[in-house]
């Protein structure tokens, strides 16, 4: 098990370097001067621009800038953004908010997606199965920003069941509405994936054998059908956790959530390469940890899988 974890961590090193290199290069290749953009329509003296460009190493070649970024990453000193604020402090403020939002969305889509998917798979072809299939297609077809505005208007403004906007003081309760919107699209995929997997497992030989042995229906469903059907679902959920954190830009903008999405959007407008790549670096680490946990869950879901070899 220890060797497996170390091997996975070593495999993550080229992924981390390749991802950060690609993102940093794309930011470096963007047109425009980020220092001039800080002053808007006002034109500062050229000496001020030159001083700031030297301070943030923008006058250096690409490889020098990227090397300095890696040095900061490995020394846990991310430096300052173009407004003079420490990047590490800014990320420490926004990442917990987006982490709460992503975890809440993950819980919603897991509980309801797996629950509805199992129920639909066990009764394939029935009215419930047909209903959830049509509903999931509608959710997938409607863009996230449309769902966000509809939920904000109906549940936040008209019914008053939740706060229409989050604001600076974000907590689990205030994030419930944006988390529901964020998790709806993935909920539809989890539902359909669970349904298909459960339907396929119902015709497997081990299910027929367990039924022939006289096992009760709930035990067959939980111990045999559900446990084996969750392997592709767990794979999707593990990859989706990082996607939820990185893809929350639209949702955070609609509900005014002070999280990673807003920070990433503002950094993109200012072409702040170090801030953008710092956010991407943390997201890469989230992906690595989530996929490592998924690999470990495989051994619990399927006893035939062993990592001690």
UniProtKB/TrEMBL annotation:
<comment type="similarity">
    <text>Belongs to the binding-protein-dependent transport system permease family.</text>
</comment>
<keyword id="KW-0812">Transmembrane</keyword>
<dbReference type="Pfam" id="PF19300">
    <property type="entry name" value="BPD_transp_1_N"/>
</dbReference>
<feature type="transmembrane region" description="Helical">
    <location>
        <begin position="132"/>
        <end position="155"/>
    </location>
</feature>
<dbReference type="InterPro" id="IPR035906">
    <property type="entry name" value="MetI-like_sf"/>
</dbReference>
<keyword id="KW-1003">Cell membrane</keyword>
<keyword id="KW-0813">Transport</keyword>
<dbReference type="Pfam" id="PF00528">
    <property type="entry name" value="BPD_transp_1"/>
</dbReference>
<feature type="domain" description="ABC transmembrane type-1">
    <location>
        <begin position="95"/>
        <end position="298"/>
    </location>
</feature>
<keyword id="KW-0472">Membrane</keyword>
<feature type="transmembrane region" description="Helical">
    <location>
        <begin position="275"/>
        <end position="301"/>
    </location>
</feature>
<feature type="transmembrane region" description="Helical">
    <location>
        <begin position="175"/>
        <end position="193"/>
    </location>
</feature>
<dbReference type="InterPro" id="IPR000515">
    <property type="entry name" value="MetI-like"/>
</dbReference>
<protein>
    <submittedName>
        <fullName>ABC transporter permease</fullName>
    </submittedName>
</protein>
<keyword id="KW-1133">Transmembrane helix</keyword>
<feature type="transmembrane region" description="Helical">
    <location>
        <begin position="229"/>
        <end position="255"/>
    </location>
</feature>
<feature type="transmembrane region" description="Helical">
    <location>
        <begin position="99"/>
        <end position="120"/>
    </location>
</feature>
<dbReference type="InterPro" id="IPR045621">
    <property type="entry name" value="BPD_transp_1_N"/>
</dbReference>
<feature type="transmembrane region" description="Helical">
    <location>
        <begin position="12"/>
        <end position="30"/>
    </location>
</feature>
């Amino acid at each position: 098990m220890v060797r497996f974890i170390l091997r996975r961590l070593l495999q993550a090193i080229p992924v981390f370097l390749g991802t950060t290199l690609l993102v940093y290069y794309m930011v470096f290749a963007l047109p425009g001067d980020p220092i001039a953009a800080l002053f808007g329509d006002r034109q500062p003296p050229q000496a001020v621009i030159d001083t700031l460009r030297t301070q943030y190493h923008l006058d250096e070649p690409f490889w020098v800038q990227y090397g300095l970024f890696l040095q900061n990453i490995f020394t846990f000193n991310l430096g300052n953004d173009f407004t003079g604020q420490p990047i590490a402090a800014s990320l420490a403020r926004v990442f917990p908010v987006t982490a709460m939002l992503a975890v809440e969305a993950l819980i919603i889509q897991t509980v309801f997606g797996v629950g509805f998917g199992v129920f639909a798979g066990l009764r394939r072809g029935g009215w419930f199965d047909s209903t959830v299939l049509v509903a999931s297609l509608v959710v997938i077809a409607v863009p996230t920003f449309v769902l966000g505005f509809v939920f904000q208007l109906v549940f936040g403004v008209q019914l008053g069941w939740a706060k229409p906007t989050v604001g600076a003081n974000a907590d689990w309760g205030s994030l419930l509405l944006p988390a529901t919107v964020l998790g709806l699209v993935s909920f539809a995929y989890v539902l359909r994936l669970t349904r298909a997997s459960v339907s396929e497992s119902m015709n497997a030989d081990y299910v027929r054998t367990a039924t022939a042995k006289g096992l009760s229906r709930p035990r067959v469903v939980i111990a045999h059908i559900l446990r084996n059907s969750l392997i592709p679902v767990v794979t999707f959920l593990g990859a989706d956790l990082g996607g939820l954190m990185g893809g929350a830009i639209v949702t955070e903008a609609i509900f005014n959530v002070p999280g990673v999405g807003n920070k990433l959007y503002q950094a993109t407008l200012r072409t702040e390469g170090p801030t953008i790549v710092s956010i991407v670096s943390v997201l890469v680490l989230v992906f690595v940890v989530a996929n490592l946990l998924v690999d470990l869950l495989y051994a619990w879901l399927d006893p035939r899988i062993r990592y001690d070899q």
